[in-house]
Amino acid sequence: MNYPRLDIDCDKIHHNAQFLIAQLSLKNISVTPVTKVFLGHPLIAQVLIDAGAKMLADSRIENLQKMTESGISIPKMLIRTPMLSQVASVIKYCDMSLNSEIEVIQKLAYAAKQHNCQHEIIVMVELGDLREGVMPNRVIDFIREIISLPNITIKGIGTNLACRYGVAPDDQKMNILSDLADRIEATFGISLEIISGGNSTSVNWALQRTGLTRVNNLRIGEAIFLGCEPLEHENIKGLHTDAVSLTAEVIESKIKPTLPWGSRGLNAFGEKESLQDRGEVSQAIVALGRQDVCVSGLKAPNGIKIMTSTSDHLVLESSQKPLFVGEKVTFSLDYSALLSSMSSRYIHKYFKAPKGKRKEEGAHDATNNCNSLRQCYA
Ligand SMILES: *Cc1c(COP(=O)(O)O)cnc(C)c1O
């Protein structure tokens, strides 16, 4: 077994995805699972498909390419506005993309024509969180400029909220999106198939909504993988919140004073903490640091507190019995901790394969050699 290790329970992810797909379909909303936090891992993609996903979304073309090359053949959506410099691969590796720039869509049209294929786009609308999207009063003119481009299908409109400023999705925002869809259809005589109302932060709105809007799609990552609604950091009822965990190993454990001694400047990261003397404590170091994970997103088990992190060391204090050298400590993760640990090549990833797909008990270290499903489950 290699450490630090990220354990990923595919059955729990399967349950969460299936649950959300079922609950939201009762509200006439389709779920497009977002794979970016797992770097488009084909094993996770397959779990999501088995749970009922009809399309997958990712923010990185590399991830969409990896899925395609691993045999994941359902339609794929690029959810970050394409770079002008990558339109050729966008055409090649995805069926649909979210867009907010005319110049990009023109280039997509040109590339799609050259490839003799059709590319679908969703026009993103700015609804106040001030990340991507066309300003609402500019949308009609925007559509007018792209409507006759060859090889481009305007599949719908969408929005993204609560990422930059935590601006909440609510009836008012979703009605603006709905009304815009109606106006676009009336103005241009087209019909918009997808009205995509946001990310995991829209789940509670969608589950509780009573009034009808035209929103019929959400792009969901965090809620599926962590069982959590990001806006209020609340768990979603019916979902597993422990599908992933991070385990690291203790490399030193000693009784030490709480106050450093010697003249003090800034620490290795330019920080200076103010301290108070709490006497002697039971201090342990685990082999995990800022090079591996966004430490502020980790939660230690009861009785253990994360005190400080440096590049390679996480300093803990335990209020109960001291940790011992070689002991393993398991942390829970928030979205940024999962994103960073999946992206770190120092963290070993263990996928607990879904029931029925397990060849042997236990999990397999899929850190470095997992480009095909067969390898992952080996
Ligand atoms: C990341 C992302 C999502 C998914 O966000 P979650 O909070 O993980 O559900 C949806 N849409 C866009 C545009 C994104 O960038």
From TrEMBL:
InterPro entries: Ala_racemase (IPR000821), Ala_racemase_N (IPR001608), PLP-binding_barrel (IPR029066). GO terms for cellular component: cytosol. Residues 8-226 form the Alanine racemase N-terminal domain. This is Alanine/ornithine racemase family PLP-dependent enzyme. Keywords: Isomerase, Pyridoxal phosphate. Gene3D superfamilies: Alanine racemase. The keyword Isomerase applies. GO terms for molecular function: alanine racemase activity; pyridoxal phosphate binding. It comes from Vibrio gelatinilyticus. Its cofactor is pyridoxal 5'-phosphate. It holds the Pfam family Ala_racemase_N.
